[in-house]
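User: I'm putting together notes for a lab meeting next week and I want to include a structural view of one of the chains we've been expressing. I don't have a solved structure, so I'd like a prediction I can at least talk through. The sequence is below, exactly as it appears in our construct file.
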Amino acid sequence: MSARAVESEPPLYAGPVKRSMTIAGHTTSISLEPVFWRALEDRARAEGLPYSALVARIDAERIGQEEPPNLASAIRCWLLVEAGREDEPRS
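Assistant: Thanks for the context. Below is the predicted structure for the 91-residue chain, given as structure tokens.
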């Protein structure tokens, strides 16, 4: 386990934390559990994006759905799908 993981691993069972950010020119608040904030930040870093830009991309995909979920749910689902893709064997 890396020093970073030991020092700043978010608690597994912690309630949501609200953060505000600007997406598509408007400010919004999103409530996610710390493990999801960490996963989002890690994913954004891996893609070379600020996490607000990644959230904006997820939001745009979400809005295109027939019955869009709320943004926090969309973020959690997106992160889960992306984690599954990382676990798939490469061919």
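A couple of points you could mention at the meeting. The first helix runs from residue 3 to 8. The beta strands are 17-23, 26-32.

User: Perfect, that's what I needed.
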